[in-house]
């Protein structure tokens, strides 16, 4: 009987040790881009994930054809009913501010200039769709190519799910950005996470050559939308994961950011997306307003 009790005790201990060592998914890995004590991680609600696509439009306030490109992008956004996310990147010569006058304002950003150079943007307006390399060394395309390219990928099942929770303090303008990424399939890639800030409804001058859209050649009260304002975690983002990640793994990353006082927080949103570190192709994207 004594030996039976000892054997039973050792069996129980073994089960406890095994149970403590083994962790089955789903599980959360919390990683902070900044000090997470300043931005406690909230509880994310359960949700249903769908494939979302990012259209990055390259534009400029002195580009007379660019209002037409923005019109096409907005029409596509309506067509895809929340599955298409837009970002307008002001870069290149058409985005250079004048020394004085109505076009002296500057929408350029460090991140936008980096993207413009890296992806060898050759015209305006053009856009990248999920940063797909459509031919050798070419990622950008004319507006006539946007819709068929989106049609080819938007119906795919999502491989990653993303959620964003923003917490904004008006008095200090501190913004806590929480991004959750869930692996909906086993992954064996190096995955990056980028987080950008965009702003809508910035009223300022725009060159225009289409009188059907608005005043020509100068549109004084033009509404600039989806304007890239900044990259929260640099132009290329942070490493989300390296190598194999099992299905149902979730990773939360939190960032503390102070919103520029010149930006209207009510018109600002966070755009977050994950992409393959080797190919730069975007896997999933998400957007959520600051408030």
Task: Summarize the structure in words.
With 291 residues, the protein is α+β, with helices and mostly antiparallel strands. The protein has one domain (27-289): Immunoglobulins (Immunoglobulin-like). Helices cover 18% and strands 36% of the residues. The radius of gyration is 23 Å and the shape is globular. 36% of the residues are buried. The model is unreliable at 1-24 (pLDDT under 50).
Task: Outline the fold blueprint.
Layout lengths: L1 H20 L6 E5 L20 E7 L6 H14 L4 E7 L19 H9 L7 E4 L13 H9 L8 E10 L4 E10 L3 E2 L2 E9 L2 E6 L10 E7 L2 E5 L6 E4 L2 E2 L4 E9 L9 E9 L5 E8 L2
Identify the notable features of this structure and list them briefly:
4 helices; globular; 291 residues; Immunoglobulin-like
Number of strands: 16
CATH topology: Immunoglobulin-like
Number of helices: 4
CATH C-level name: Mainly Beta
What structural class do helix, strand and pairing data support?
alpha+beta
Ends apart, CA distance between termini: 68 Å
Low-confidence regions: 1-24
